[in-house]
Amino acid sequence: MRNEKGMTLVELLISIVIVGLIIVPLFVILTGTFTRTVEQGKDTQLAYFGQEIMERIRVEGYVDGTSPTTYYCLNDQGCVTEEDPDITYDAVATITASTPTYTTTPSSLEFYEIKADIVPIDKQINTLELVTVVKK
């Protein structure tokens, strides 16, 4: 009588192939999901930078003649207007202002249109543009 309690080499190889056919697509899906999550996190951080700058301009007001203004942004410290050459910033925001003219707007409601272009340092593809208005 033969001892038939173990697995043969062929059975072991077939089970390894089947497990491989299941695991490889899972790794592909998980890698793509992780990459998209990281990119969305970077986009969200750019939106926070833009929101911080726009809120600062709305609170402090816009000083005429200071366009364009550049802000240098760090993830953990926010945005500053003076660049420190010893620091590698995460994003650079350029603020430009214009005075739009509308024929239906009364002169008492004059305002500046403020545009912020936020560009990450590490990648030039994901940029963010925000536009708001500030009363003169």
From TrEMBL:
The lineage of its organism: Bacteria, Bacillati, Bacillota, Bacilli, Bacillales. Keywords: Competence, Membrane, Transmembrane, Transmembrane helix. It comes from Aquibacillus salsiterrae. It comes from the Bacteria. The keyword Membrane applies. Signal peptide: none annotated. This is Type II secretion system GspH family protein. Its main location: other. The chain crosses the membrane at residues 12-34. GO terms for cellular component: cell surface. GO terms for biological process: establishment of competence for transformation. Pfam families: N_methyl. It is found in: Cell surface.
